[in-house]
């Protein structure tokens, strides 16, 4: 007899708000839970386990609110967790009953270890508790899930009896947990397959949904869950970003994207709108304060990032060379070619083009050389770094004086001193050392001593273009000629050394001032020469 159960659909049961919230330090406010539940509904999960209502009045209130506001007729099933005791089950029902599709999820530890050390009961007593709990839940709610906790370490024959008892008592979903992440994929698949085959009244057409709930203690949660699916499970219990007790639960995004990307192999589907995955991941990460590791599958910052030159070159030719799914599928705009010391000229040229700089030939070689220097000094070269570098390389004024070398000493002992070596456009070389209030002040005094173009520094600003200790520093300065305060000249410099960036910026401004105001004998038309450059000692 067919029950109309869709056997190609893998139901996604999200327990981020229950098992996920059990992660150390991940406590959520009830407003945050509600917002996450709304986003889970957008994501398309079939069931939201909203909490453990008997745990506290706050938990009950949060589950009630989610049941009322998210558990609408077109929304997901709203489920609450309850130990196999009357009080928990009644409270759980209070939590979920206002949802259009409520579910009670009750559980009891069924491994001999749990029976002995947690409940101190016999197999027979455990079966009796299961029967009573499931019957009570079913008398309240048409949708009842039973979980034999620590199933992976339970006696398989006893587990069959427990599942049969739960079905006879009215359970509609049987969830098999690997509570301590002990299972391995092939073994777990066989375990689930045998359980389904041997439990009376639980075959494919019985209407019973089998489910798997895996923990990640050995890093095998996703593999075990998929193995359970291949063995016949049609519900997966998962969390966003894989958060949960200890090493976490199976991650929703990994299982969903495996079923999606390898659909020809699995021939199964989910109701998840994969384009909502990134948004959901970020929301959960922000609210729980649990950062996603950069190399996390699907949602990690590096999941669609490429740095190696060969990979970048391949990606620029065709994305299929190094990506098995598109970033758009999970809600990202594009893959990231991370420019770093392994990147090649091709990737740099394309990135510059995307940023609106068409640079070729010798100019590209020059930029590439500077890019490599920068990439050696800092791990990742960002768009902001490139902008600063291009501005520095191409938009400076004609250099009447250029910086050859600079050395500074500073610190708490002694006077900050800068020794600056510069070359004039005529090829003369000048060296001057000066002391100042700090290394930048000392450098500017040394430059002033060489150029002899009196000016007032009216603006100096520095900021790091990028994050981190290895960031590229950007400095902008503005100076006025000493005898003409109304005029001002700006300069810009970028370098991974902030003093060097400061000197570049100042020199750019001084050069501009000297060029515009005119050197003695080189007065530009229409300009008044007010600056005379005298050479310092050679
Ligand atoms: O890991 C587990 O066994 C659980 C149950 C409550 C399903 O979270
Ligand atoms: Zn769990």
What does this structure look like?
- The protein is an alpha/beta fold and 538 residues long.
- It has 3 domains: 11-288, Alpha-Beta Barrel (TIM Barrel), CATH 3.20.20; 305-381, no CATH class; 401-535, Alpha-isopropylmalate synthase LeuA, regulatory domain (Double Stranded RNA Binding Domain).
- It has 17 helices and 18 strands.
- The protein has helices at 30-43, 57-69, 86-96, 112-119, 123-140, 156-168, 185-198, 221-230, 252-261, 263-266, 277-288, 309-317, 345-354, 361-377, 383-394, 439-451, 498-517; strands spanning 11-14, 47-51, 77-83, 102-109, 144-149, 173-178, 209-214, 235-238, 305-306, 336-337, 339-340, 380-381, 401-409, 417-424, 429-435, 455-464, 473-481, 489-495.
- The strands form 5 sheets. It has an 8-stranded parallel β-barrel with strand order 1-2-3-4-5-6-7-8, surrounded by 8 helices.
- Strand 7, helix 8 and strand 8 form a beta-alpha-beta unit.
- Helix 5 packs parallel to helix 6 (156-168) and helix 7 (185-198) runs parallel beside helix 8 (221-230).
- The radius of gyration is 34 Å and the shape is elongated.
- The protein binds 3-methyl-2-oxobutanoic acid and zinc ion (ZN).
- Zinc ion (ZN) binds at residues 19, 177, 179, 213, 215, 245, 249.
């Amino acid at each position: 007899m067919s029950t109309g159960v869709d056997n190609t659909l893998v139901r996604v049961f999200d327990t981020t708000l229950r098992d996920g919230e059990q992660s150390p330090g991940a406590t959520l406010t009830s407003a945050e839970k509600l917002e996450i539940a709304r986003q889970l509904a957008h994501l398309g999960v079939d069931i939201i386990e909203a909490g453990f209502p008997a745990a506290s009045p706050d938990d009950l209130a949060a589950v009630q609110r989610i049941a009322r506001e998210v558990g609408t007729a077109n929304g997901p099933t709203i489920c609450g967790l309850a130990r196999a005791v009357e009080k928990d089950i009644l409270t759980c029902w209070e939590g979920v009953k206002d949802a259009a599709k409520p579910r009670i999820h009750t559980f009891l530890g069924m491994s001999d270890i749990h029976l002995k050390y947690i409940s101190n009961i016999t197999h027979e007593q455990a079966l009796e508790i299961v029967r009573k709990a499931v019957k009570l839940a079913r008398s309240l709610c048409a949708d009842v899930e039973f979980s034999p906790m620590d199933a992976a370490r339970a006696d398989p024959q006893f587990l069959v009896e427990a599942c049969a008892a739960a079905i006879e008592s009215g359970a509609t979903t049987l969830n098999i947990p690997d509570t301590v992440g002990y299972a391995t994929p092939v073994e777990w698949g066989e375990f689930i397959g045998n359980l389904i085959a041997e439990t009376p009244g639980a075959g494919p057409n019985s209407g019973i949904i089998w489910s798997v709930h895996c923990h990640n203690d050995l890093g095998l949660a996703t593999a075990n869950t998929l193995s359970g699916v291949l063995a016949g499970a049609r519900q997966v219990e998962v969390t966003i970003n894989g958060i949960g007790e200890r090493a976490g639960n199976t991650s929703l995004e990994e299982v969903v994207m495996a079923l999606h990307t390898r659909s020809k192999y699995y021939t199964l589907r989910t109701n998840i709108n994969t384009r909502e995955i990134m948004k959901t991941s970020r929301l959960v990460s922000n609210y729980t304060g649990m950062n996603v590791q950069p190399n996390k599958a699907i949602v990690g910052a590096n999941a669609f990032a490429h740095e190696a030159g060969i990979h970048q070159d391949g990606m620029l030719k065709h994305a299929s060379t190094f990506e098995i799914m598109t970033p758009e599928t999970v809600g990202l705009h594009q893959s990231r070619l991370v420019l770093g010391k392994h990147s090649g000229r091709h990737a740099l040229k394309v990135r510059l083009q995307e940023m609106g700089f068409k640079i070729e030939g010798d100019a590209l070689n020059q930029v590439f050389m500077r890019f490599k220097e920068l990439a050696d000094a800092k791990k990742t070269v960002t768009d902001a770094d490139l902008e600063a570098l291009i501005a520095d390389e191409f938009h400076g004024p004609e250099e009447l004086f250029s910086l050859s070398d600079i050395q500074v000493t500073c610190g708490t002992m002694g006077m900050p001193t800068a020794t600056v070596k510069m070359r004039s456009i005529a090829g003369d070389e000048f060296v001057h050392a000066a002391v100042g209030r700090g290394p930048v002040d000392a450098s500017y005094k040394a430059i002033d001593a060489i150029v002899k173009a009196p000016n007032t520094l009216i603006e100096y600003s520095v900021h790091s273009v990028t994050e981190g200790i290895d960031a590229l520093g950007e400095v902008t300065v503005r100076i006025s000629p000493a005898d003409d305060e109304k005029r001002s000249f700006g300069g810009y410099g970028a370098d991974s050394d902030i003093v060097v960036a400061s000197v570049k910026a100042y020199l750019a401004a001084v050069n501009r001032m000297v060029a515009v105001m005119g050197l003695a004998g080189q007065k530009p038309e229409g300009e008044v020469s007010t600056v005379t450059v005298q050479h310092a000692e050679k």
